[in-house]
């Protein structure tokens, strides 16, 4: 019987659940936009940079490090080492997440006023801060399951989180609306907390079941003849050093990238006010773009995101074993299929984008944004998969520099063209920056295209 290809099987699982999650999230955003309006969506989206930045500082690099090292340990059936890798990485990430939670909660007013330039986001930040430790738990566990290529657990965890979040927000809104209370955007943030809690509990149950059913090692001869406490502490220190050697540069890179993305997101409403909008209209336009148009454009990327997640350990394993033919095949197939999917989506958005904006969001502005952003699809899909391949090849510095170059170009459009052209200047910046990043990624893998 032919053995299933782990990339295809994993991609199918992740794509199916990814589409289900995005489908739910898609209508969830329609619900939020109709209840809270464009300005409410703008406030909600302003908190996203803080959450993304906290994720990059606390667990983003550690999740990748856990996935990479667990993959190599699992190939030798060293389950004890893989458990130690998970626990050590989780301990480090949890310490960071607790510190990040305390900082955001205690200084939420200062962050809202001085960094986000919107004091109304302070209560939302205090709620969001409580979700960071829960995100850390399920991210570390997801990293483990990506490493052992059990993609069903992270995929189902994402779906569980989405279902619980949407269900809780709808229930809370229905209850308070029946009592005559006016809905506030804080309801959506509370739903995020509840969804993260549900995902965390699901992942904890999955990891318990995983290690409960694994075979116990019978041969104990590999244990050192030193005292047990010394052996354990030495192994943990060694494991922590190994994990941090990979996680620290990854986290630093992603933190710098997310910092630039945060500057971008925060200053878009500010520069729109320079263009001539008042605060409410600037937040409204920002909310339409980031809360309505972009989620629709990103909807098909569930396929490329799934493949990207799975490509990293597979390409890493092929590269370490000298299987350059497998890497070459991954590069070529990724570019071919991503271009095909991208041009297909571009055509669909050009045909139905204006109708989608008006029908789904009751916003002609959203439809206009969708039409302009449709051209980004081929470049965005190719860049995401090639970035993952480059990370699998160990070229993390290259992907970091490419992202910095792309963001730097986009920031030039934010600061110089938005005050002149309005939000259209930022849309041009998105297209130009994505094209630049794609060209840089293709150049980096050029030897595999010969």
Question: Top keywords for this entry?
Answer:
mainly alpha; 16 helices; 450 residues; single chain; 85% helix
Q: How much of the polypeptide forms β-strand, as a percent range?
A: under 5%
Query: Helicity range of the residues?
Result: over 70%
Net shape: globular
The helix/strand class is mainly alpha
List SSEs in N-to-C order.
HHHHHHHHHHHHHHHH
* Average predicted confidence as pLDDT: 84
Summarize the main sheet: none
**Helical segment count:** 16
The low-confidence runs, each spanning 5 or more residues with pLDDT under 50, are 219-230
In angstroms, what separates the terminal alpha carbons? 34 Å
Strand count: 0
Q: Over the alpha carbons, how many angstroms does the gyration radius reach?
A: 23 Å
Structure description:
Helix 5 (122-129) runs parallel beside helix 8 (186-213), helix 11 (301-320) packs antiparallel against helix 12 and helix 12 runs antiparallel to helix 14 (377-392). The longest helix has 48 residues, at 228-275. The chain is mainly alpha-helical and 450 residues long. The chain has helices at residues 6-46, 48-75, 79-106, 108-115, 122-129, 132-147, 152-178, 186-213, 228-275, 279-298, 301-320, 324-361, 364-373, 377-392, 396-421, 423-444.
The gist of it:
This protein is an all-alpha fold and 450 residues long. It has 16 helices and no strands.
Could you give the topology of this structure?
Layout: H1 6-46, H2 48-75, H3 79-106, H4 108-115, H5 122-129, H6 132-147, H7 152-178, H8 186-213, H9 228-275, H10 279-298, H11 301-320, H12 324-361, H13 364-373, H14 377-392, H15 396-421, H16 423-444
């Amino acid at each position: 019987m032919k053995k299933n290809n782990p990339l295809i099987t994993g991609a199918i699982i992740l794509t199916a659940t990814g589409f289900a999650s995005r489908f739910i999230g898609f209508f969830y955003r329609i619900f939020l936009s109709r209840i809270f309006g464009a300005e409410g969506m703008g406030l909600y989206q302003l908190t996203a940079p803080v959450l993304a930045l906290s994720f990059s500082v606390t667990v983003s690099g550690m999740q990748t490090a856990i996935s990479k090292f667990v993959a190599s340990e699992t190939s030798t059936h060293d389950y004890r080492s893989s458990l130690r890798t998970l626990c050590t990485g989780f301990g480090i990430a949890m310490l960071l997440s607790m510190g990040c939670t305390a900082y955001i909660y205690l200084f939420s007013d200062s962050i809202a006023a001085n960094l986000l330039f919107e004091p109304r986001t302070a209560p939302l930040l205090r709620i969001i801060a409580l979700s960071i430790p829960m995100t850390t738990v399920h991210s570390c566990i997801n990293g483990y399951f990506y490493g052992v290529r059990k993609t069903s657990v992270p995929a189902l965890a994402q779906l569980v989180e989405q279902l619980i979040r949407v269900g809780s927000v709808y229930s809370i809104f229905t209850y308070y609306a029946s009592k005559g209370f006016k809905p506030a955007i804080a309801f959506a943030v509370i739903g995020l907390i509840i969804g993260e809690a549900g995902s965390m509990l699901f992942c904890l149950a999955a990891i318990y079941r995983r290690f409960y059913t694994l075979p116990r090692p019978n041969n104990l001869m590999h244990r050192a003849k030193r005292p047990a406490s010394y052996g354990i502490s030495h192994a943990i220190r060694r494991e922590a050093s190994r994990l941090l050697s990979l996680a620290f540069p990854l986290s630093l890179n992603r933190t710098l990238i997310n910092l630039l993305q945060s500057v971008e997101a925060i200053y878009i409403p500010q520069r729109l006010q320079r263009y001539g909008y008042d605060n409410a209209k600037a937040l409204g336009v920002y909310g339409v773009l980031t809360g309505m148009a972009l989620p629709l454009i990103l909807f098909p990327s569930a396929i490329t995101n799934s493949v990207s997640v799975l490509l990293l350990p597979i390409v890493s394993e092929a590269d370490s074993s000298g299987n350059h033919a497998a890497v070459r095949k991954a590069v070529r197939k990724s570019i071919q299929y991503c271009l095909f999917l991208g041009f297909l989506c571009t055509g669909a958005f050009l045909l139905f984008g204006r109708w989608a904006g008006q029908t789904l969001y009751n916003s002609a502005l959203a439809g206009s944004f969708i039409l302009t952003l449709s051209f980004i699809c081929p470049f965005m899909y190719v860049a995401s998969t090639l970035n993952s391949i480059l990370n699998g090849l160990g070229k993390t510095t290259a992907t970091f520099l490419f992202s910095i170059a792309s963001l730097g170009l986009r920031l030039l459009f934010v600061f110089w063209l938005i005050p002149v052209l309005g939000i259209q200047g930022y849309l041009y910046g998105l297209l130009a920056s994505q094209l630049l990043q794609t060209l840089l990624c293709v150049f980096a893998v050029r030897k595999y295209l010969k």
